[in-house]
Amino acid sequence: MKNTRYFFIFSCLLLLGCTGAKKLADAGNDGKGWNKLFNGTDIKDWFVKINHHLVGENYGNTFRVEDGIIKIRYDQYGEFDNQFGHLYYKTPFSHFKLRFEYRFVGKQQKGAPDYTLLNSGVMFHSQDPRTMLKDQDWPISIEMQLLGGLGDGKPRPTGNMCSPGTDVVYKGRIWPDHCISSTSKTYDGDQWVKGELIVLGNKLVTHIINGDTVLQYSKPSIGGGVANGYDPKYKQDGKLLSSGFVALQSEGQPVDFRNIEIKQLPDTDD
């Protein structure tokens, strides 16, 4: 009986959170209040942090701007050597709606892990890149994982959730797996795909792909594994994540990003 009551309470809270998220999502569609994170010309408003390198070192010109697009490339690398990287916008955000477009291009870099094939992501609620150690592979953050179809007719959803050094609540409990698959369609080839995030501080998170809501979860917090090489003082397990940095990921697959915009939302319990 007690378990049933707790489940009912959680379901009501989740429903209220989803209703609030829908209201905020609808408000975000009025065309007002949007700001460009990427100016289409350069990445002077962004920080680079690549594994095995100090913050600010854009090794191999990994992150570059051409034709109004942020391009992630590895043509100046040798072996990949786990040089996972991220490009961080200069200021943190808490309650916001983020929208962007991405596409996968080219071939996976030699030596990159198999799982990085047609794989990238947008990190949010991330630790400040200036707090990362030289040999830290992933930032403590939440990831909206982006995947491309393999052209084999098998489903490979995009807009998933992965949790380097973090936890989320999904289906009423702290989810034990590192990633949660979304309900999105599979997108093959080099087509542009539109991704959106609605992030309500440490409450509800909603993933949207090409206009379809594909995943929701709540209560992002520090915890879990996967991230390595971090300074222990920044890994405070159980601490709710209410804000952090937004970053674009490089992990061995060439990928393009464009039209990156954000709308800050009010901090509300509705």
UniProtKB/TrEMBL annotation:
All copies of domain 3-keto-alpha-glucoside-1,2-lyase/3-keto-2-hydroxy-glucal hydratase, residue ranges: 33-263
GO function term, MF aspect, one: hydrolase activity
Coiled-coil annotated residue ranges, if any: none
Pfam families from the UniProt entry: 3keto-disac_hyd (PF06439)
Domain of life: Bacteria
Classification via InterPro entries: AL/BT2_dom
PROSITE patterns: PROKAR_LIPOPROTEIN (PS51257)
Protein name: DUF1080 domain-containing protein
Source organism: Mucilaginibacter ginsenosidivorax
